[in-house]
Structure formats: C-alpha cells, structure tokens
User: Fold Riboflavin synthase from Marinobacter halodurans.
Amino acid sequence: MFTGIVQGQARVINVAQRPGLSTFILAFPEDRVDGVEIGASVALNGTCLTVTRQEGKTLYFDAMQETLSLTTLGDLKTGDHVNFERAARIGDEIGGHLLSGHVHTTAEVTAIETPENNRTLYFRVPRDWMKYIFAKGYIAVNGASLTIGSVTEDTFNVHLIPETLRVTTFGGLAVGDRVNVEIDSQTQTIVDTLARMGYDRPVNG
Assistant:
C-alpha cells in the first residue's frame, strides 16, 4: 500500500525494451534507497513496480505489456523524471489517502493556470470514470494524493501549492501530456454499491 505522499523524483537512466517487457533503470536520491531490497515495492508515477536489481542508488524495475498499455510508463524515455513513493510500512503516517498503486486509467492535461504561488492543472478523463470523481474528493495523479477542485462532464482540476510543485514532476507538465490516475477506492465502492441498488450517478452529473 501507498499513502499518496510523493517522496521525490527519480530520473530515468535507460529503458531496455524486449518483446512484452520493458526494464526501467532509474537513479534515485541517495538518501531514499536506504534499506531497499530486491522484491521491494515502489510506486513510479503511481504504478506499483517491484525492484529487480540494485546498484547503489540505481534501481531496476520490470513492467509487462499489460502495465505499459494501461499506464503512461510506456511513454518514458531516458532523461525523464518520475514521482516515486516507497511502500508504506506499519506505523507510517498516512498524510494523503490509501493507494494500491494500481492505475485505473490515464488522463490528459487540457489546461494549466499559474496564479501567484500556485498552479491549477486541468485533466480530461474517459467519461466512464467521471462517476467516481467528485469536487473536494480524493484522487491520485501520478501517485500524488490530491484534492479535486471543480468537476465538469469529462474534466476535473487540482490546485497545487509550491511545495507540491517542488517535490513532484507536476511543474514540468504541459498541455497534452498524459498522467496516471488512481480513483479513491472508498469512493468507487460507495458509487458501485449505490449503482447496484439502483441509485446510479449519471456520468454527466
């Protein structure tokens, strides 16, 4: 499990592609790899992957074709940066909300506003997923637990403070970029339960 509190950025050193499998080689901040072992879980842009090899502050991860097709990891190239979070341990503070590291869908950046001392990002999501997205609810974007701002038929926005921009890759996003989205599990459970009882939420609502 993860908490949605991004611990920093890792840099892609190389992507080794083979049929049906890609190996991502990333350099992490030196103080963030203490205690990492083969088999450890790390969320990269919100996608839970397993450490397969370690060389100092460099970690290796394998991603199958299914993962590449459902997330933005297949778009990564040498020099890119990703948000990372190591798996939560018992007793860790949950500063965001509980995440599984299983990406539900991707979203496209449609607009960016930069008022003084913050930034507002707008995302377009496949409409089938909008029924789980509510103003002031939780959502994870590239592994970061965020509070949803406003919602339309197929978009939502989030407001980011300078600290979030400093720690994450959000400051480098541009219109047209894709991001990974994990829906809040509690919200999904409630919406699906109500739907089974006949209280469907209209997708355009």
User: Anything to note?
Assistant: The chain has two domains: 8-86, 105-196. The radius of gyration is 17 Å.
